[in-house]
């Protein structure tokens, strides 16, 4: 087992290095002028030259890459050209917001998607099955921004139950009530026993998390359904049923744990994907997260920020996949 | 069955939990907070010497300039200065400063601050530092007097009222920190201003909260806001909903369709004031057949100006007369204007040897700008009638910029559609920015136009502007007549500043010299 983990780690590191080289090359090839961004569009020749030197743009590409790598090893991801802040600081600010959103959304996805998948597998071809499958298809095919806007209209405009956007209400922000320990508002407010902030943050998290959960719900439900149906066709399930074991025991005690493998894999991939693809949700709900930051970085040619985000996502993907692979490897039938 | 029941019970417990304490966010209905919504995050740069983009709405509440310009009255008013004058040769400017002004850090304001600020800005040479280039030296002979000695005459009063690079910040604190530590300190969201509001908190990319500065020299008598909040709301649909729900009082930018809808609502005021922002189409004077003046003029006659103003800009613009917008001094309404006249265009093209057109023009526009896209589409149809094909290339701004500066001239676009706006309130910013010979680097002269006589006139006019505004204006008129004749740029339209504000706010007067700035100190909420 340990050698397996070590091998996965090693290949993970290679993947990260490869991704970083590719992305760096892209930022060099795509037309943009970071020096002009840094100094302003009306810069004269002197200002531009000074900016180029400051940003290290006058160096050859491989030197720039190596400098970058040595910076990363020391924890310095460079300075964002757009925000003028260290990229590390930017990431520390934006990642918790998106991570909280993604975790909440994924939790909802599991809480809804798993039962959906199980029920439709158990009651195959019944009306429950059709309802669940329809829900799954909708979840996967509804455009995110469309869903987001409609939820806003329904829950904010018509019902007035939930807020329009942002992470906290204006009065909470202006009064400076929000604690900032981990950056996860729910966690921080629990740690400081601040009920107002906790419920305010929860209310604000609801709609974006539901919007985010739509796609993974569909994914999880469909995947679990088809895995379960496959398992139900296995001989040992037939034997268990023949022995008269109750359906509940058969499903949860035996079938489910064998069916979860592919679902977990797909779920982990979806989670990694969501980390940077929440842009539309963040835009509509005014959520200050990584998606928004990445979109701005790409459109302004902010290459340190692009590299920073790419590295972060690559690391997350590698870790997630490693965790999933290890979990699956726990199954004695899987050969490591 | 039992499982379903359990699930239903759990769900029904969840609903009241969510609706507990659910009320509309009414921050801005709280009387003393003014909330603005910006669609981009402006706060990339906090350094008052460097800031050169959209940081103004925040910075102009934290900082002040020595003078302020009212373009409609064409008058300067003293903010941190009470009097000022210039010697007849235009080379020495003296400013008498206001007393009793304090910085947020507690230090007193005096002439050494102004001297230090100008010197530091020039030394850093970032952003709009070039507005101070005329200054040879600055002196502070006594605490209330600043003297500027110039290399050549220049309108330093206008420069002191500039929207960029003219903020006054505390020199004692600044010197104590010293560059580069000072620049980093600023960019972490710190400030050293004298303005009516001071920084309370900054959530990167999300919002800035400013709070009342108790020792502000203007005092707090009367009805003033205690806090000013600037939120970043990238999605205009959400911003509009926030406005309608009372969560924000003002939205910086909304699509015209939304503005028209909100106009009908008596809870909102929509104001449209003439602005200084205009739109140009630069014609590549180096590319055939556009190197022939007649072809350029012909192309200028093909633009459906009125149609653009009416259907793209919803009437919130007017066709430009020359490169200087209507409300700026140096504008002349009697200059020749190209009209939409396909016959004239055909005649000119025939004279130039292209009776049936027969060539393609590449037009680049910045992606994401709906209005520009519509302009391009409208124009394409008209050009086609003359046998000219318009190849519209929508590109991200950076790519568009790179292409325009491409060292291989043949690669560059034929037509470049862009916005322009001033740094200092003077026509010079348009001329030096866009029409003076620029080889390396090319700044905004995207027609690559070069006319040495015009260059001379432009520089001479800027020097004259310090001492004899009228004479300078006449020189600018000559420049404009030449430019209209040579037609390196099509002057498309002057934009109006359209602002949507909650109707409960009074005292708001848009000042185009300070784009998108709301001086929160000067407005108040009714019913207080």
**Any idea what the radius of gyration of chain B is?**
26 Å
Approximate strand percentage of chain B: 15-25%
Give the count of helical stretches of chain B: 16
Biggest sheet details of chain B: 11 strands, mixed
**Secondary structure: number of strands of chain B:** 19
The poorly predicted ranges of chain A are: none
Structural class, from helix and strand content of chain B? alpha+beta
Number of helices of chain A: 15
CATH homologous superfamily (4th level) name of the domain at 93-300 in chain A: MetI-like
Using a beta-carbon cutoff below 8 angstroms, give the protein chain pair with the largest interface and the number of residues from each chain.
A-B, 58 and 63 residues
Distance between the termini of chain B: 59 Å
Quick synopsis:
The complex is a heterodimer of chains A (336) and B (528). Chain A is an all-alpha fold and 336 residues long.
Describe the protein in words.
The complex is a heterodimer of chains A (336) and B (528). Chain A has 336 residues and is mainly alpha-helical. Chain A has a domain at 93-300: Orthogonal Bundle (MetI-like fold), CATH 1.10.3720.10. Chain A contains 15 helices and no strands. In chain A, helix 5 (87-122) runs antiparallel to helix 12 (247-276), helix 5 (87-122) packs parallel to helix 15 and helix 12 (247-276) packs antiparallel against helix 15 (303-329). The longest helix of chain A has 38 residues, at 195-232. The radius of gyration of chain A is 24 Å and the shape is globular. With 528 residues, chain B is an alpha+beta fold. Chain B folds into two domains: 27-267 and 503-525, Periplasmic binding protein-like II (D-Maltodextrin-Binding Protein, domain 2), CATH 3.40.190; 274-496, Dipeptide-binding Protein, domain 3 (Roll), CATH 3.10.105. Chain B is 31% helix and 23% strand. The model of chain B is unreliable at 19-29 (pLDDT under 50). Classes of the chains: A mainly alpha (336), B alpha+beta (528). Chains A and B meet through helix 2, helix 3, helix 5, helix 7 and helix 8 of A and helix 1, strand 8, strand 10, helix 7 and helix 13 of B.
